[in-house]
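Quick question, first post here. What does this chain look like in 3D?
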Amino acid sequence: MIEWNKLLKESPIQWLLEEENPSIRYFTLKDILGKNETDAEVIAAKRAIPSSKLIGKIFQKQNPQGYWEEQFNPYLPKYKSSYWQIMTLGYMGIDRTDSRVEKACEHIFQFQTAEGAFVSQTTKTLLAEYERRLKEGRKLPPAEEWVSSFIVEQQLSCLTGNMTAALIRLGYENDPRIHKALQWLVTIQNKDGGWLCPYWRAHIRDKHGCFYGTICPLEAFSEAKKDNLTEEMEGTIKKAAEFMLTHRLFKADHHDYRVINKAWLNLSFPWFYGYNVLRGLDVLTKLGIVEDDLLKDAVDVLMQKRQKDGTWILDNAPIGRMQTNIEAKGKPSKWITLIALRVLKRISSD
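> Answer (accepted):
Ran it through. Tokens below.
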């Protein structure tokens, strides 16, 4: 068991509390030092987030109508379009009380299907594409069939999970559209407890749950208020957690527990659709899974990556591909350090 008081004493808390990054300061005060939302320091840090340098750079690129890059393609270009900005903002501690955030989120909801999934194109834009192809003389099935097939292919558990988690963080936790998204994730859960993308042609024959497809929906459920979860959703969470624990968060259970993907040992932020052991630990411990022995291997990896000064390094990030870089790759990371400490606090002894 981790000795929290000793770990806290050795950790660079003052570094995390620097005012130049109010998002980090806000979460450190609240999640690490245990201050509540009514504390004067917490209130001041949260109020500073919307005008912080990083947030300013993201919103500087926002169209007045609420989107980034292409209006009717929230997914592309990758890391720069609307979906990715919503995901990033969701981690920053800002919420829909900021009109820029609400405008962006409401723009995004037009890409949610009637079933609850989030997709990259609306029916309207797909019909326009259908007409364009017809004019080119292409032989196509009936419009409804063609559009429906494209919509199905775009329904990804990872994308819907990420967007649902971000929207909950941004203040939409009680919105019926969020409940619809969570319910859709319940209906498409794989038999083994994970999620996969058989409706995406590249994985049409897959049977085994995918870590990338699983961690994103599970993160969405971890962000949901317990009062908003149905009994069926609780069962979904339990099965997904068992899927993760069976693999000890990064190992192949049917192959002598070899590491499935060495890249999962690299700590990255923002997570987007990716997976690493820290993300797995953060999601599972937030769900209240803190005493399971099957977490130990992942915790050992995390502690081995801790630097002598108590920080953790940012191993990977899409540097140069986002609207703005968040931190420098290969250097001590406030975000990784904050999340690692948050995990260790949850599993530690007092």
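The two ends are 10 Å apart (CA to CA).
Residues 162 and 268 are 16 Å apart (CA to CA).
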